[in-house]
Design brief:
The chain is of the alpha/beta class. The chain folds into two domains: about 100 residues, no CATH class; about 280 residues, Purple Acid Phosphatase, chain A, domain 2. About 35% of the residues lie in helices and about 20% in strands. The protein contains ten helices and 15 strands. It has a seven-stranded mixed β-sheet. The chain has a six-stranded mixed β-sheet with strand order 7-8-9-10-14-13. Helix 6 links the parallel strand 4 and strand 5. Helix 1 packs antiparallel against helix 2 and helix 1 packs across helix 3. The longest helix has 28 residues. It is globular, with a radius of gyration of 25 Å. The relative contact order is 0.14. The C terminus is likely disordered.
């Protein structure tokens, strides 16, 4: 019976941790300054560390003495309420873990390829400087100095046939903070150039330390895309420094700022409306009606939390970052920390939420140089038109119907 009691108390600790983490995730999805968020993280740390000790002492070793052969009948009402809430948290943890590990790629994604670039091996050293939290880079198994070069192919029902084969380079969450050397990002840009995408986009969190603004011309400034380069900023660009200098640095090297607006991109006789959404931290939602002749709507939104709005606006493709894939993906539980009001549901990956396809990047860096089972990534998205497949199927059906039967005399 004591072993069962220990298991139940352990589940209470797990559930309590789940509840506290979910609260932190949702607080970090809001427009709160770093000083406030830092305070909430301190509270989080205290609660995570203190609660197991409290349970060990009471009701484990004193009061009902559940770890010493005591009885649950001696547990007072408030104890039952507290543990009941924690057990509900444990049930939620079990459900979210199962959902994460049983998820599958959406049907609109027809192909996925990934190759790893190990920057540490290429350079013969860790590209680590004296920035914040550099000690985390030495955690065993850390993948912060690697990145995945991903290619996803989507068959989208809203893509005009004339745009079939359009490709987009998606970068997000570079976090120039000074902990990773610029050499890491030089390798990222070299791999990005090799992808030769038609369009390039950045979905926010470019610079954490404005003393590193001169990295932008030497990195993002070296990328080109025949149909244009578009960007928005994110919560870190807003939180630590005035975002104006970052916008200026990006536009000075030829990137188009689409924050809070929609602009036309014309190609092959079709018009794509490209919009940018930095809410809740900055600006307003873009107005896609400003591109009235658009036959395809592409939204750059730093957080995937704006998905509901995107669906109401009939956005065809939404590209986001912000959640970093969780940065740490545990073997059983999956990602834990994801600064979203959806928790870890949209930590990273592709999701079909008609009429919108959402792609969430794992990003390239972060405030903390720690990645476990969650490599940084750059992605090339290749868009195929479902209309072409339907046209081919219809043509084949007509040809089959018109062909004479081999059974006729």
């Amino acid at each position: 019976m004591t072993a069962v009691n220990a298991l139940l108390l352990f589940l209470a600790v797990a559930g309590h941790t789940k509840i506290v983490v979910e609260a932190i995730n949702r607080l970090h999805a809001r427009r709160l300054r770093e000083s406030v968020l830092k305070g909430t993280r301190h509270v989080h740390d205290v609660l995570i560390l203190l609660f197991p000790l409290v349970l060990l002492w009471w009701p484990g070793l004193s009061g009902p003495r559940l770890l010493l052969g005591g009885s649950w009948t001696d547990l007072p009402t408030f104890g039952w309420v507290l543990l009941g809430v924690c057990w509900l948290g444990a049930a939620g943890l079990a459900v979210s873990s199962v959902l994460w590990w049983t998820r599958s790629a959406p049907s609109v994604q027809t192909a996925y390829e990934s190759n790893v670039v190990d920057v540490e091996t290429r350079l013969g050293r860790k590209p680590l400087a004296d920035g914040p939290y550099r000690w985390l880079a030495n955690v065993p198994g850390n993948q912060a100095f690697q990145f995945d070069v991903v290619e996803r192919t989507f068959r989208l029902p809203g893509l005009p046939a004339a745009l079939d084969g359009l490709s987009i380079l998606h970068l997000s969450d570079l976090h120039y903070i000074g902990t990773l050397e610029r050499a890491f990002f030089d390798e990222v840009m070299a791999a990005s150039r090799e992808l030769e995408a038609d369009v390039a986009v950045v979905t926010g969190d470019v610079v954490d330390d404005n003393r590193l603004l001169d990295w932008i011309p030497a990195t993002l400034g070296t990328l080109s895309a025949p149909l244009g380069r578009y960007f928005i900023l994110g919560n870190h660009d807003w939180r630590y420094d005035q975002p104006g200098p970052i916008r200026d640095a990006m536009t000075d090297v030829g990137w188009t700022d689409v924050a809070g607006r929609a602009v036309p991109l014309s190609h092959a006789g079709e018009t794509i409306g490209v919009g940018g959404d930095e809410r809740p931290w900055m600006g307003d939602a873009p107005n896609f009606d400003d591109v009235p002749n658009a036959t395809f709507r592409l939204l750059l939104s730093h957080t995937p939390d704006n998905l509901g709005w995107a669906r109401r606006q009939r956005v065809d493709l939404m590209l986001s970052g912000h959640n970093h894939g969780g940065q740490v993906v545990l073997p059983v539980f999956g990602p834990v920390y994801s600064p979203s009001r959806f928790g870890c549901r949209y930590a990273a990956g592709a999701f079909d939420r008609p009429p919108t396809t959402l792609v969430v990047s794992r990003g390239l860096s972060g405030q903390h140089p720690l990645r476990l089972n969650c490599r940084p990534e750059i992605a090339k998205l290749v868009l195929r038109s479902a209309a072409i497949e339907e046209e081919h199927a219809a043509t084949a059906a007509v040809a089959s119907h018109a062909a004479p039967s081999m059974m006729e005399p």
